[in-house]
Each structure stands twice: as C-alpha cells, then as structure tokens.
Queue: 4 jobs
Job 1
Amino acid sequence: MAEDKSKRDSIGLKAKEGQTNNGFVQNEDILETDLDPSSPAAGPQHNTVDILGPGEPDVKDVRPYAGMPKEVLFQFSGQARYRIPREVLFWLTVASVLLLIAATIAIIAISPKCLDWWQAGPMYQIYPRSFRDSNKDGDGDLKGIQDKLDYITTLNIKTVWITSFYKSSLKDFRHAVEDFREIDPIFGTMKDFENLVAAIHDKGLKLIIDFIPNHTSDKHAWFQWSRNRTGKYTDYYIWHDCNYENGTTIPPNNWEIIQFWLSKGVDGFSFNALQYLLEAKHLRDEAQVNKTQIPSIIFFSLRHHLPEDTVTHYSQLHHDFTTTQVGMHDIVRSFRQTMNQYSREPGRYRFMGTEAHGESITETMVYYGLPFIQEADFPFNSYLSKLDKPSGNSVSEVITSWLENMPEGKWPNWMTGGPDNVRLTSRLGEKYVNVMNMLVFTLPGTPITYYGEEIGMRNILAANVNENYDTGTLFSKSPMQWDNSSNAGFSEGNHTWLPTGSDYHTVNVDVQKTQPRSALKLYQELSLLHANELLLSRGWFCYLRNDNHSIMYTRELDGINKVFLMVLNFGESSLLNLKEMISNIPTRVRIRLSTNSAYSGREVDTHAVTLASGEGLILEYNTRNLLHRQTAFKDRCFVSNRACYSRVLNILYSLC
C-alpha cells in the first residue's frame, strides 16, 4: 500500500509540472563557472517538493493571454456595431485631410504676398562719377561709394541704385558703352565692384544697377562687326542701306549680359531706354516738332543756334517710327524670364525696373505687364521730377494719374529727381524741398531719392561748366557736397571732373547733420517714420481734397485705430478749417512731423490750421471710423494687393 501511495504521489507531481513557458524563463544563461565544485552547493542535494493545499492555485497554471483567434476576431469585426463606426471614422479622416489641403490651397491662392525688399524702403540713386572720389583723380568711383555706405544707412535706405559704370567713352555720360562686362577704369576694377557688392549686402542693403540694352558706343565690338557686315552682327544696328529681304532680324544677345551681372550678386536692374529696342522697317523720316514743344532743359542749351527749320537735336522730331514698336514688349518679357531664373532662392528675388522717359502715362503702364504675363516690377515714375510749377492741383494730378492708370495689384513709386532732370531746389525753389520729400515718403509705394536731394543740392551754373561737355543734362551731376572743405569733401585731389556747387559751404552733409531743422534731419525722420509705421509703408491711401495751394490725404490701416493726415501746401500761405472738411476729426490733433521741426510734437486746433508756403504737416489722431470703410470714400481710397491686402476677404493683414 505504501508503495502504491508513493507511485500515486509521483504521478500527481508529474501531472502538476505542466509545460514550460519560455516567456517566463529567467536566468537562462547560467555559466558553469558559477558553480564552485568545492562549495557545498556543488555536492549532493536533497530535493524538496511543496505539496499545495486544497484551494491554492498552482502558479505554473497561470499562462499569459494569447489573444483572440483569427476566426473569432473576424467574426466580431464583421458585426455592424463594429464595422459601421470604423468606416465612418475612416471616411471622416479622409474628408478632413482633403478639406485641410483644400483650405491650405485656397488661403495661399487668395492671400496676398508680403512686401518684397524693393517695396519695404526707399531707393537711393547714385551717379558714381559724382558721389565720392577715393583716389584723388577728381572722378568718383566704386571705392568711394563703399566708403560712404555708413552714411547711406543713416538715411534708412534699403536699396542702392548705381547708374551706368560700364567701360564707356563717356560722351553722353551713361549710354555710350564699349563693353558691358567691364568696369570703366575711372570707376575702378571688377574686384572693386565685387567688394562693393559684398559690403552692400553686409549692411543689409540691396543693389540695382543700370542696364542699357539698346545703346552702345561706336567702339563696341558689336558695332565694329556690324559696320563690317560680319555674320549675325550685320543687322544689330540700323544702317542706311540695310534691307530686310532675308527675313526678320535677330536682336543682340543681351540676356548673357544680364546673367553675367546677376551671377556677380546684383539684386536687380534698371532697364533704360527700352522704347528704342525696335525701329520701323520702312526707315521713313520722322516729322519735325514745333520749336515751342522742345523740353526746356534741351532748348536752353540750343536756343542760341537753333534755326527755324533746321533739325539739330533728337528732341526736335516726333519719334513715331523709332520708339515703342510692336514686339518691343516681347523682348522685355524675355528679360524678365531670364531674371526669374535667378529669383528661385528664398529672399533672392531679382528686381526689374524700367525707364522710358518721354512716353505717355498709358504707354508707361504697359511696362507693368499683363495680369498673367510679368514684365517690370514697376516702371520708374519720374513725373514728379518734371514738375516745375508746384501747386496743390498739379501735384494732385500727378498722383491721381499714376494711381488711376496703374493696373490692379501693382506697386507705385515716386521720384523727385534724377541724372537727366533739373534738381529739385533749382526747379521748384528751396522752400519746396522738404515738402516734396514729405510727399514721397507718405504716398503709397516706394520713394526714390537722387543723391544730394536729401540736403537740397542745386544745379551748378552753366558758366562754370566746360563747354566741351553736352551741358543739356550735366548741371544736375555735380559732385556730392559732403562738407565745407576743399572740393566739398568729394575729393582730396587738386581738381574735380565737374565744379562743385557754389553753396557747398552751407549746403553739405556735415553741416546739416548737426542742425535740428535741416533738410537732412527731416529726411532722416521721414525715412524712419516710413520704416516704423505700417500706415505709411502699407496702409490705405484716401484722397481728401486739393486746391491751387494745398493737398490733403490720409493713411490708415485696419486693426490700427490711428490715422495719419497729411496737409501739404505748395502754394501761398493758407488757413484751413479741418473740422469742416473731415467729420470725425478731433478738435485737437498731434503734429507728428512738420517741415518746420519746431512744431513737431505739438497739438493744433483743427478749426484753424495755418500753413506757410511750402509747409507740410503729418497730423496724427485716433479714430475707429476709418475713411476707406465709408461709402462716400469708396472711389477715393487706394491700396495695392501687394500691400498684403486681400480683396476676396477684404482684409489688410497687419502682421504680414
């Protein structure tokens, strides 16, 4: 019996051992060296077995849950209460993703692009031969420009525009180019240019340069080859005996020149004289202009030797056959496409401006391009620089003419002078310098300043100019007036290529930077205000009124309960009752800036605002009733789509 009981216990113990679960095996890697043969543990051991009592579970019977078999899982998952919610959630997820993608595309499509660098601040145009001479030879140069970059940054300039510096005979000072890939020796070397580009970019500025695709010197290789009827260059120029029997001629390959300078780091171009790119094939003579219609700046230099019926100057003809011919804009678009190839890097958009002096406002606007065909970012607006009889009406006409004719969504610009125009002070008078600068910094768009206009430089006198030069456009190119030292600080040499202005002892940078009421100080305050106030750089422009004396307009922006009211007087002294003219204006407003700096920061009673001749005020007041929201001003307010304005959503983004 004892033996049977022992067998039964042995069988029971074996039955309780179950199966080994590898998931619970521990200390599998037991090294044999862990057992010391000399230790007691290595000797014979007595096996002991614990017999579980009634009701106590054996730990070895507890196995991990192996999961639901596949057949059972499919049976449950196919039931409607599980299948339907799963399918609903799946399609909701798909719909949400598609909706998110569609919303993203829609927002990108209808949201305006933020301001580009050429919109964000003023441009400063430099005639390089007259800005600063670094080597005492009397001619301004590229190193001289680099030496004065710190001064340019004090003006809060964003873009430096350097006119033609190509190797040239300098006969007409800009256009007689001999080689578009070389720097004229009087300006320096290619290394000097590369250093200048690097220095400009280090200052956070951009650089644009002139490019004249139609004109070359008679010493240019193309001209010499064309004169000798060499290959494809035969018809690069118009020769009297030229014929077109063999088909349409191919224009010169100026695209490679564009690529050359873009690869040097140039940020954009001013394309000059584009209207002359093509000529009519029939080569007929052009009709003569009435003598009284010749521009005054040209007539002045010709008046003593201009016979009644003799044509001696280009301006004496109507240029119906040699300007703005059919196909010209196709070439301009191809220039734009070439530049776009270099605009693909983030932050490296390449700017394209065009100069087409003498064209009508309608012809000028074509350079903006078509809705889906891009040309210039803007044609340079030189209409203010031709204004010689200032009044509220004449200034208003220039502003409204540009804004009303400009294609929708484009960006305006405003110039007060240039190398081919009479300087602002000589043209309008000293008292109008400050109010004109205030005008261009408070209008919508990019203000453009010709060097020296910020200090009120004048044209030099004709009697002081060497008669060997073509004096027609020379008087506005005199050396920059830096201080009251010899040669106005322009050069340390014994002579300068042109004489300095006779007033340089008092009209210069060094004197004006220490005078709180100088033209330079006001210019710096205006440019700083333009940079810091969204109302001026991107806000709505609402035109209020004008008369023969003054012009009034506001700048405002959704989300900012502040308005700038500009009151600029181009006529005689005036007394204005602003309270009658603007219904929601407070009785007292603050003068943010005045052309008379003594008034800046003061308050003025809007019932009686007195303006002296040539005085301008930027008034500031708070209101929630913005003019562009009022029906009465619906057709008198302007904002460009380029200013982060969405016409679809009627939102002007203040944080763009």
Job 2
Amino acid sequence: MSRTHLNNEDLFGYIPNATWAKAATGLLCVACLLHIAAFIKSPKSVAWVVIIGTLGEIGGWLCRLYANYRVQTATFFIFQFLVLLVAPIFYSAVLYVLLYRWSLHYGPQFSLLRPKYYVAIFVTADVIAFIVQIAGGGLSNNDTNPKLGFYIALAGVIFQLVCTVLFCVLQLIFVISVIRVRPVRVVPGSYALYSPRTKLRDLSFLCLTISTIAVLVRIIYRTAEFADNDKFKGSELWFDILDFVPMFITALFLAPALYPSIYKPVNSGAPERLYSHSSQDLSMDEERSILK
C-alpha cells in the first residue's frame, strides 16, 4: 500500500481504543488541574512546565481518540506521535530543575555534578535527541533510503536513554550522599546539610524519585519499541501500560514533588535569590563562602 494511502490501522498496527483514550484523557486532566492549583498557590514554582507537558499528553490522547473515529486519515497518528514525543521532555526538564533545587537546598557539596549543569546539560541533550529522532523519522519516510532514517532515529532514542540513565545515577548518588551526610565533592568548609531533613521533605523527594523512575521506564520501552517495532506493533496494551501509565504517574507525583519549601531557604545559608525559578546558580566562590 502506498505511503500516501496509509490509514490509522496501518500506522498504529491497531485501531486505538476509544474507551481507554477517554479514560487516559480524563486522568491527565485531573493531574493537570492539580498542577494548575499548585501554580496558583506558588507562582514561583515550575508547575507551569508540568502543565505544558500534561496539556501535550492530553492533546496526544485526544488525537488517539479521534483516530478511532476517523480510521481513514493518518493526520491524527502524526499529531499524536509528535506531541507524545515532545510532552515528556517538559516532565524531564522539571526533574532536572528539581534536582538542581534540592542540590541547593541540602548543599551543592552533596551533588556530584555542579547544580547548574543539571538543567544545562540534560535539557540540551533532550532537545538534541528530539531533533535527531524527528530528522531520522523524516528520512525513514523517504523511499530513497528509509533504513538510514531508521538508524538515525534509533540513535536519537538510544542517546536519550543513555542520558536518562546517567541522570538517574547522579540522582541516586545525591540521595545516598544526603542520607549518609557524606559530600561527594571536595569543597572547603562545613560538610553539614544546609537544611535538616524532615518527613515531609523526604516524602517530596520520594515523589521526585518515583517520577524519575517512571520517565526511565517509558524511555526504555520507547527504545525497545523503536528497535523492534514488529514485536510491539499490533498490540495497544504495551503502549498503554508502558507509555501512558509512566507518564500519568510522572504527572501525578510531580505535584507533591513541587513541595514549596525547596524554593525558600529554610535554615539555609544559600541566598534567597537562588530559589526563584528565574535565578542563576551559585558560582564556585559563592559555594565556598557559604560553606565556610
């Protein structure tokens, strides 16, 4: 069948289930409302980024819903593919920002990477991975050399997976370092935590960790799906369980992860300006002066 006459069943490998798409859209709307409420209560938070990502997820699932009713058009497949590829990037960006904030909250000496690099490095990596995947996807639809496009897109997915795993490792190192109160970077001065751990803060960070794991699960699935599409194509169940569920968990658990105290220096030696969402990171001299 010609590419120009492919319908949704040809592209998806199935007709998206309308009931599941409605349920997914409804659940994501609930998560979105939670973050809208959080943003209203704490405008300095990064809840607005989660809202954008969740709206993208909602848009993607609405496209899947309409794809059930209009089987003969491929438009909805293309739209859902793009928005469900872009939306998780906003979730990941929030994870990077939150680990950056927690690093300032407890002290940059407990972070293997200097706090400001979490956002700079990993957001850039996600954008590069997205561009590579889109470029590869475009080439794979070209009858001239579809295999080249496939391998380029696969390289983008694998690159994103590697970066996500690296971030998870850095977050794990930070958690262990804070729990043991053992700095992982040599910085002159005190080795104590800037702010004491509390049950509420630990719960908030646990929610951040759960969100991070959910993002990792999704990208592992996406990599496996892309590498061996024939194994997953034809069954919507894999996509529902390993794409929607992790993204819904991420959207839901990022709400308590945005615990407002991390935006304020409570018993902290860090300057208050550093807790604004538009603030800049500590310089090395500032880190040293605070730790003295």
Job 3
Amino acid sequence: MRLSDYERKAQREIERWERGESLFGQALGFAMKPVDWAFDKFVPDSVVDSLTDALTQALSSLNDASAWTMAPDDVLSAARDLEIDVDSVEDLRDVPLDELDAVAKRFTSQNTILSMLSGGGAGLGGALLLAADIPVLFTVNFRLIQQVAASYGFPLHGPEYSPLVVSIFNVAASGSREAKSDALRELSVAAAAFAHGSGYKGRKAQGTLREQMGHVPREIAKNLGAAKLGQMIPIAGAAVGAGVNYWFTDQTAQAAMMLSRALYLERKERL
C-alpha cells in the first residue's frame, strides 16, 4: 500500500535516527567512560546479577497477562480523546500515522515524568534505595514500550513478543547503531507476519525467556547501573537519580516510537 507524504517523511526520520547518535548521547558516552571503568572494577558481579534478574523479571511478565501494567482501554481512551474512533487496539493499524503519533506522545510524556520523580526520590536514599529504584524504572519503561506499541495498533501480548521488547530496551540502554539495526531487523520479521496475517515468531523466540534474551539483559543492567552510580553520592544523589531516570525513559520513548512507527510503515507497505 502506498505511503502518504507524512509517512515518507517519517521513514526518513527513522533512517536518520538509525544512522546517527545525538550530541547529548555522544557527550554522555564520553562522560561515562570513567564511570564505566569504576563500575567494572569495583561493582561486584552479584550486584550486576541482581540488576539483570530485575530486568528479566520485568520481561517475564509477558508470560502472565494478569501482571500487565498497561490496559488496552487506556490506549483506546487516549485515541478517542483525539477523536479517533476505533473498536480495538488492532484497528489503530489502519489510522493515519500522524494521528497515531499524537496518541503515542501522550504516554511518553507522562512516563518520563513518573520515572524522573522515582529516581529523584530514590536518590535521596543513596545506595539503600538504588536497588529499589531499578525495578520501578524497568516497570515504568516496560509499560511505556507496551503503551507506545499499542498506540500504533500492536499490543505486545504473549511471550512471543519478548524479542521485540528486549530489542527496544537494548536500544534505549546502549543507543548504538548495532542495537538499532538489530531491532529494525526484528521488526521486519514482525511486519511481514502482521501483513500476511500469520503468527509472529521472533528470530530469537526459541527456548526459555532467559535463553531467548541471552546476554542482552546483563548488558542493559551494566549500562544502566553504571549511569546510576552517581545516585549514591550524598546530596547530589537526587539530581543524578532524577536525571538518569529521565534520560533512560526519554531514550526508551524515542526508541519505542521510532521502532513502532517502523513496524507500522513496513506492515503498510507489505499490504
């Protein structure tokens, strides 16, 4: 199916996003080099393991619909507030992209603020509350990914979608071109399945959830854990905690929007 001018423009935005890295991201990467060194040298493997387990646990909720923190009705309500009349989340796939962008942005702003407040409060408690903040941050960002994907008509129900969710998390944590390209390849598989009405089976969807994810959760945990080390500094901890949470959730929001738009566009082109 032919794309509109707005949708062609969105494709170019996605291509630029895949190739590039923001100036903020470059500056953060440079500033984080000594922190990464300190994290690798002084933080015990047990801490990294606990962060990895927290992420794995959040992703494991894909196997349990009752554990979801995102209600499809919230997405439908947001769509109807913008005068988009649909009966189901899946119906949003046939709504013009510019209207869906407006729906998704409602969820990105509210979750970014929520995670920032969580990080600031945890930062006041230093190391004691750092461990408690990580699972909350993962939960907020996991819900954000679900909400954004559903805003474009793709509710990520079931464990078969864990490769997509992991890919988006990995892009948010690393921001690397390799992670973006890997996520877009995974989305291409999903787009073909959605366009042809066949069931989506991710490229990595064999075996247990932990086997599917491989080393990715550990890398995400290390990247985020290193960034949050400054949260343990007295007085400055609240500012660092709020800032890191804001940064990570903003990265998740951008990745979720770009990748969900890519999924929407590729599916439409395949129809």
Job 4
Amino acid sequence: MALMLLVPTACGGSAISPKKALEANQRVLGQGGGTGNGTIVDPNTGTNVDPGTGTGVPGSGNSGTGGTGGTGGSGGTGGTGGTGGSQPPAGSGIKAGSCAGFKNGKGITDKVIKIGNSSDISGPVPGLFTAAQQATQAYVAYFNATSSICGRKLQLDLYDSKTDAGADQQSYQKICENDFAAVGSMSAFDSGGAGTAQSCGLPDMRTASVTGARNDCSSCFGAQATGKHEFSNAVPDFIVKNYHAASQKAAFLYLNAGAAAENGKYQQKVEEQRGMKFLYSAGIDVAAFNYGPYVQKMKDLGVQYVQFIGAYQQSVRLAQAIQAADYHPTVRMYDPSVYDYNFLKTGGSAIEGAFMFINFTPLEESQPELNLYKKWLKQVAPSAQPTFFGEFAWSAAKLFVQNAIALGGKLNRSTLTASFKPVHAWTGGGMHGPMDVGGKHSPSCVRFLQVKGGKFVPLGPTKYMCNGSSVGR
C-alpha cells in the first residue's frame, strides 16, 4: 500500500523519470540527509559516495566497545558500540538454535556475519531511500550492542542503487560476492538485481519489493509484503459500514502515470466488489495544475466519497481545489502517501477532516519496537527523522536476526531463505500490521487516521481491521 506510487518495471528499466520518482516518494526523506556511519559504494566505480551528515555510533553504554569501525572497500559499519541501558537484547524471546556444527561460509567468519544493504541514495534522486538504509544501520548498531549470533556480530556493507535498475543489479552482484545476505534494501527499480539475487541463492530480506520481477525472485522477501492487484477489504468495508450513503456516491481519482494509474483501477474494482458504487473515475496528468474541472464534475454528480492516489503535493492540490469550489463531500480518502508532515504544513485548512488508511504504527504513538527504532536511529544519524519506510527496514532486519538466531549452527543461505517462507503474519514486534512475508500477499490489515487541528489523529479503533484482501478483476 505504501508503494503504490512506484512504477512496476518488471522488464528491468527505469520507466519513470527520477524526478517523478522523487516527487512520488518525498515522504521518505525526513529532515536529515545523512546516511549514518559507514561509507556507501557506487557499484559502477567502487568509489565511495558522500554519505551526508550522519555520524557514527558513539558507543556510550556499558555494552560494546564504542565507535563504529568502518572496513573500507564496501563500506562496512563494523564495531560493537552501543548505548547499553535497559532495552531488551536484539532477538530476545527467540529460542536460539544450537551452535553445534556452525560453518563459516560466504560472508561469515569466526567473528562477523556480513550483510549488505542496497538502497537508492545518490544519483539523479538524492536520498530517495536513505531512510531505509539508516534504519538498517540503526538495527545493526542495536544488535551489536546487545546480542550475537553464535558469537558473531553483524557487519553492514552499504551500496547505492541510485534509482536505477542497472545499479541495483551491480550492487547485488557485489553483495552476492561479499556478503552472506541482503537486509533492508529498498529501490524504486529493484527488478535489476532480482535475477542476480536468485541465481546466487542470496537471502534478500527487503524493506519491500516494488517490481513484479523482485516479487517473483524466490529468495527475495519484503517486510512490507506486496502482491499483484490485491487490495485490503477493510478500506471499503469501513466506509460501507460507517458512511454508507457516501459509499454509494463515490469517485476515484489517481495520477495517470505508472503504478498509480494501475493501482487506482484495480482498487476501485475491489471497492465495487465490496459494495461501493462509483459515479465517476478519472486519471489526472502528472503535469496538470488545474484540478478544478475534476472537482466541478464530482460536485455536479453529487459525489460524497472522494478517493485519491497521488503524492502529498497533488493531494494538497486536490484538497485546495475542493475548498475553492465550496464543495463538501462527506469523505475524502487518501493512501499512506499523505502521512507526511509536509502534507499538514502545506495543506492547511484545505485538508482538515481528510481520511487516510495506514498499515503501520503512526510515528506519533509510543510502541516498544517503534521506540527502539527511534532511539537507535538517533545514534547512527542524529539529524534524521523516523519514517514509515524506516519502520519496515527495521522490521526486515529484526526478522533476519530472529531467524538467524533460531537456526544457530544450521545457518546458511539456503536454510535462511527457507525460514522466511512460513512467515505469514509478521508484525515487526508490533510496529506494523500483519504481513504475509512468505506468501507475498499485500497486507489486508489497516487502520485509519484523520487530520484534525493540523494533526494526524486516530479515526475509529486503533486496532487493525483485518478483513482479508481481494484481487481487482
């Protein structure tokens, strides 16, 4: 759901301009552009990319030895520094497998297990998925300060996929050669490395898989699970139950480009299957500035439910056009793309009362795992802000660690990959709704927020609604 503005490019190319990709995913960037400790490698040249303004883990606690010793080359974050304190050890609550028979192998020595993260950092879309890489760094710092896998710490090697399928493939070739597994990666054009990861048997526990090719990769999984043309039943069910009259006079608008257009069409079909009736639907050109004609059409038809798929900037533009037309539909529904401080800041009174559905714990709330992510993010990148993509990257790292600990001496690429397949209700320690990681189905569980008084506040129960998913046909 959080990925619906990214373009599926199963054939391997970058089918949308980097500028549009940035606009569609700007919410990921947060306030800090630094990538934290370690260096990031350009897979083309092998040279280091400027990591920005983040700093290393200070290691001020009573566990670990302080400092994050980079290893050069592929940009390891090394080190065992930490803050100590009362947080539970990483992997706590998991029954550790016996370490008897543990064998070193690709990316594994007597002291470390090397993992790689390839995310869109530099190139034509600077910082697109910096948040995912920062969150993975944060979890590695937390793990190294509190835990180990059969006496081994983690070393994170950082790679830059540069919002480009070719760079993603090159990064994954290096991860195959140098690292045991890939963890927390996120790229808008992740089809590039899909075949490479599968051919070398690389366990690739990603933040999310965006393209069909990556989702088809047998060794690739996403903490934010995705499935083709699936949509949560809970969204239309909530509206039909609580706003029935509006649900019978609905309209669906979407940006007429790439995945937004595709997703808008099949989501409308799912909502129709669940009892909603649509009077109007339309795609809006990405370059369009005047949303007035679309608003006037809905007003003339008596539409009372308006749903929109677009980046927060376009969502604000639609809201302002609705306000300017003195039009007052009962429900204005957005997807997680608008969960962004800038939506509140730029939307002002025009977005007051807007609805949105999400499948993760809002960052404003306190939740044990979310609090750990926030705490350790500040250790590796003090100027960064947590994001929901960061939540899923942290979740990916957590799942990797838990399964590796459980395997113990049986840990290898094949057994780790197999261990992800039975995972069908992963919540990342409660950070997000249940995800069918192994089955690779889109999430069915959502909850709702509303803009009130310039803030995101819960709409209805804070418990997730889980009514299954349907395929838009």
